[in-house]
Amino acid sequence: MCSGPQESTSERRRLECGMRLLVNGEAYEAEEGISVRTLIERLGLDSGPVAVERNREVVPRGEHATTALAPEDTIEIVHFVGGG
Q1: How many CB atoms neighbour CB 83 within 10 A?
Q2: Average pLDDT over every residue of 13-21
Q3: CATH class for domain 19-79?
Q4: Pairing assessment for the beta strands 74-79 and 50-54 based on DSSP bridges
Q5: Which residues contact 68 (CB under 8 A, 6 or more apart)?
Q6: CA 30, CA 6: separation in Å to the nearest integer?
Q7: pLDDT higher for 4 or 26?
Q8: CA nearest 2: which of 21, 25, 49, 64?
């Protein structure tokens, strides 16, 4: 299983995990075909509602489990926190 964010000394180095994403502005390595839902879980953001944008397009919550990410995707995730 891959984890991220990871730092690489060479961009040409083949990623052991398969692909590189940009998640909230930071490099993240993951296996190819990971779903939005799996990414959310790995980031520990599955305890409440989140909004996800993939390459500047909103991914509806109902599509998180079926939306596969691709190399070089840019992902923005907003985790809502309640307060008063």
Answers
A1: 4
A2: 69
A3: alpha beta
A4: antiparallel
A5: 33, 34, 35
A6: 10
A7: 26
A8: 21
Give one DSSP letter per residue of 13-70, joined into a string: SPPTTSEEEEETTEEEEE-TT-BHHHHHHHTT-TTS-EEEEETTEEE-GGGTTT-B--
Whether the model clears a pTM of 0.70, i.e. scores above it, the answer is yes
Query: Which residue bears the tokens 């509602």?
Result: 49
pLDDT value at position 80?
80
Question: Which tokens sit at 20?
Answer: 């590189």
Region of poorest pLDDT, from 4-13, 29-38, 75-84: 4-13
What tokens appear for 63 in the block? 């599509």
**In the Cβ-directed half-sphere of 7, how many Cα atoms lie within 13 Å?**
1
DSSP code of residue 71: T
pLDDT in tens, 20-34: 999 999 999 999 899
